[in-house]
Amino acid sequence: MKRRPRVLHVVSHFALGGAERIALTLSQALQEEFEFSVFAVRGKIDDGVGQNMMDELQAMNVPLFEGPRIPMRYGGMLTGAWTLAHAIKKINPDLVHLHTEVPESSYAVLAALSQHHRQRPVLRTIHNTNFWTFHWRMGQWCDRQLDAAVCVGVSQGAQREMLRLRGDSGGSPLSPEPAIVLNGVPASLRAKQNWQPGKTLRLLFGGRLEYEKGADLIPDILRQTILPAGYEGHLDLFGDGDLREDLEDRVTQQIPGWTINLQPPVADFRERMADYDILIMPSRFEGLPLTAAEAAMAGLPVVATQAPGSVEALPPDHPWMAQVGDAKSFANCLNDAFARIEEWPEIARSTRSFAENTFSIDRMAQDYAKLYRNLAVAK
C-alpha cells in the first residue's frame, strides 16, 4: 500500500499563537491523506495552552519534536537548526512547512550548510503583515537561503509583505507569486444567546501582551470610555508577554467604573467568548487574526482597528474600526458600541455570515492539500 506523504510542521513553540493553531488544524483536517509531525523550535511553554496542544497532538498520534528554549540573539538559530536536522533525519519528511520567522531562521541555516536541505520541498506560510521587521537584514539572508520555497500569505497584507521582503533580499523571483490561503476557524463554536447585558458590560481581550497587539493602549482606552448610565465595566485580559509586568502595574491603578482582571492564557479561550459582550482588539498589526474570526463565529461583537490583517478579518462595513495606535479613537468606537446595544444582534449576525463564508476550515485544508500534493510530487 502506498504510504501517505510525510509533512513536517515547524513552529516557533507550543504556546499561545495563531500559527501553532493553524498547524494543528491542518494536521487534524488532513490526517487521512498526509502523515504529520511537528517540530517546535523553542519547545513547549509549560502552561495550559501548551499542554492542551500536546494533548491534541497525542489524540491524533502526531509526534512532537522539541528544540531548546534559546532566543535567536543567544544562538537560537544554530541550536534550532541542529535539533531540527535531527528531527528531519528521523522523520525523513517529503516536505517541510515553515510557520513564521523563528522556524525560517533554523531551516535557513540548514539550507545554507547543506544542498540536500536546500533542495528539499519547503512551504512557507507568512502569518503576519510585519514580517522580519525585528531584524530585516537577517530576514533578507534567510529569504535568500529559502528562495526556492513556495510561499503562502494568510492575507493580502501578508502577501504584500512577502513580496516586499523578496524585493529587498535579492532572492530569485517568486514563481509562482505567493498565494493567499485564508485561515479557517470552527463554525461550531458555542454561540452567544443573551444579547441584553446586565448592569455590567463584560469585555474580553485575548492574545500576546505585546506592542503589536496594542496591549499597552488598553488602560488609556478604558480611561476615555463613557459607560452608559447605570452600567459598570469589566475587562478580562487573557495573555502573557513582554508587557505583562507593565500592565499589572497600570491596571492596579483604579480606573473609574472599571474592574480589570489580568489572567494567563487559557486553552478554552474561544469557548468562553459567548460569555462576554464585546471583544476588543487594539492591534497595531496582524496577519489574519483568528481571534476576530472566532469571535464572529461565536456571535460576539468586535471592536478592532484598521490595522493590516485586521481589516481583512471583519466585514468591509464593520462599524467599529479605530485608527491604529490611537487610544482615543478606540475609546470612541467603544462608546459608539455602548450606545448601540440594541443593534448588537444584527451586527453580530452580519459578522458571523461574513466569517462563515470567508474562514472555512475545509477550504483552507483543501488549499493546503493541493500545495502539499504538488510539493510531495516534486521531491
Class of the largest domain in CATH? Alpha Beta
* H/E element sequence: EHEHEHEHHEHEHEEHEHEHEHEHEHHH
What is the CATH-assigned architecture of the largest domain? 3-Layer(aba) Sandwich
Give the count of helical stretches.
15
- Strand fraction equals 15-25%
Mean pLDDT: 92
Find the count of extended strands (DSSP E, 2+ residues): 13
Tell me the structural class: alpha/beta
What would you call the shape? Answer: globular
Task: Please describe the biggest sheet, giving its number of strands, its sense, and whether it closes into a barrel.
Answer: 7 strands, parallel
Low-pLDDT runs:
none
Q: What is the radius of gyration computed over CA atoms, rounded to a whole number of angstroms?
A: 21 Å
Task: Sum this structure up briefly.
By secondary structure, this protein is α/β, with parallel strands linked by helices.
How would you describe this protein?
By secondary structure, this protein is α/β, with parallel strands linked by helices. The chain has two domains: 6-184 and 360-378, Glycogen Phosphorylase B (Rossmann fold, 3-Layer(aba) Sandwich); 200-358, 3-Layer(aba) Sandwich (Rossmann fold). Helices cover 42% and strands 16% of the residues. It contains 15 helices and 13 strands. The protein has helices at 18-29, 48-60, 76-91, 101-113, 115-119, 136-145, 156-169, 218-223, 244-251, 269-272, 290-297, 310-313, 327-338, 344-358, 361-378; strands at 6-11, 35-40, 64-66, 95-99, 122-126, 150-153, 179-180, 200-206, 232-238, 258-263, 278-280, 302-305, 321-322. The protein has a seven-stranded parallel beta sheet with strand order 3-2-1-4-5-6-7, with helices on both faces. Helix 4 crosses helix 6 (136-145) and helix 6 crosses helix 7. The longest helix is centred in the C-terminal third of the chain and has 18 residues, at 361-378. The radius of gyration is 21 Å and the shape is globular.
